[in-house]
Amino acid sequence: MTRDPMSRVFLAAPLAFALAATPACKDDDAGTTAEGSETTSGGESDGRAGGLERPPGSVDPDDDGSTTGDATADASGEGASDPSDAEPEEAPNPFGATREEQCRQDPRRDMNASARRRFDEGVRQAAAGNVSQAQTAFREALREDRSAYKAAYNLGVLADRAGNESEALDQYRQALRIQGDYERAAEGIVTIYTRRGSVPDAIAFMEPVARRYPRNLAIQALYAEVLVQAQRYDDAWEAARSALRCDERFVPALTALIKASFAQGRDELGESILDQALSVDEANAELHFIKGSRLQDEPGRFRDALTEFRRAAELRPDYAEARVALGVALLAGGNYPAAITEFEAAAALAPTLVANQLNLADAYRSTRQWEKAKAQFDRVLQMEPELTEAWFNIALMYQEAGEEFPGLDDLTSLQQAKQAFTRYRDLMGPRLPRDDPSAGYLENIDRQIQRIERRREREARQREREAARAAEGGEETAE
């Protein structure tokens, strides 16, 4: 099938922090893991917002923050040297504490045994797709232990995946009321604000959290990423550096520096830090996503970009942003069934992400699944009624379908296409380019409508003549 070059396909606006891998911060508490015991010292998230907390024993490799390789980054932004060069590893603070003591984070309390059983059951039910049972189990865990902040967080994840952002925010805030520096809940809130395009709200939320918990490296790295979104690059560098002073190999902070570098047009520095971060944590999904995003803009690197997006999605199946990017790349390459699979998975993970819902609708259109495409476009318009790209693609759908569209004939389909193109042009208003392709489409549609109407008029006259002859023949027979 040849793809219409004027079809509008859009990569979702970056979630910035959603679902990407986050290695744990180093600390001195033996036995601390990212997903195991609740007794941690902060910064233990292995997956960013969007992934459920899991029961003990389900720990990914290197979740304890241990890394291999030799990688550092210039935390001052001036070169690829050791970010801790400015200060010795054990430089004392004014109170006589060593750096190790300055960076040590407070342990977190484990939930009681009864709550843990309910929590583990909730994780099992969620993994099996039994959302209602999972929610019940997590609520029971909170009733058994009001300090079970991970249960509140998981309720937020399930609400977010169901498209209920308000409830998700409430649950994430509940988790933070229990554990004030719980980075996964903070990232959940930031993700929703960013998805809505409300960076000022994300900043207003993160600033006091970052000030209150300077020793939580994940919080500092998250704050740095929000500052990048707000184009406060100097502040972003400083926030990331504060984490790197404690752990020069802390990948979330390096990731923030990568994003800051690229946003500032410092591509060579960004690429250098990206390579170094991958040498620290090759299994970091977000780093592969960033690399794929860079490669897709380079001529002749389409396959390499596709490989990186696929790697990111394999590492984190719940990484919605990576699955959207992979779907867009697959769609551009003509692999429509695989693209649909990725878009559908991303829609299940982030149902309020309008750009992905639009991509899924267009993928259905490209495969001539007209009823699915129409239902999906309707869903998009419910979310954003004046989305110009949606109206453009709806018009293409009717134009392409013609009499194939269930319940419509060729003339009605063309009329629907004309209405959708007209709506698109009205919404674009003064933003409409002079050479916008919709003008050519409308001219072509008008010609087709005129031909169909003339043909129908001829056919109607022919039927009238045949009916008249039949009537005359009947009269002669009667005589």
What is the number of strand segments?
0
Task: Report the sheet with the most strands, covering strand number, pairing sense and barrel closure.
Answer: none
The average pLDDT is: 83
Percent of sequence in beta strands: under 5%
What CATH calls the topology of the domain at 369-479 is Serine Threonine Protein Phosphatase 5, Tetratricopeptide repeat
N-C termini distance:
61 Å
Q: pLDDT under 50 segments (min length 5)?
A: 1-47, 55-90
CATH architecture type of the domain at 369-479: Alpha Horseshoe
The shape is elongated
User: What is the tally of helical segments?
Assistant: 20
Model description:
The structure is a single chain. The protein is mostly helical. Among the domains are: 98 residues, Alpha Horseshoe (Serine Threonine Protein Phosphatase 5, Tetratricopeptide repeat), CATH 1.25.40.10; 111 residues, Serine Threonine Protein Phosphatase 5, Tetratricopeptide repeat, CATH 1.25.40. The chain contains 20 helices and no strands. Helix 8 runs antiparallel to helix 9 and helix 19 runs antiparallel to helix 20. The longest helix is centred in the last third of the chain and has 42 residues. The protein is elongated. The N terminus is likely disordered.
Structural features:
479 residues, mainly alpha, Serine Threonine Protein Phosphatase 5, Tetratricopeptide repeat, disordered N terminus
Strand and helix map with partners:
Elements: H1 99-103, H2 113-127, H3 131-144, H4 149-161, H5 165-178, H6 183-195, H7 199-212, H8 217-229, H9 233-244, H10 251-263, H11 267-280, H12 285-295, H13 302-315, H14 320-332, H15 336-349, H16 354-366, H17 370-383, H18 388-401, H19 410-428, H20 437-478
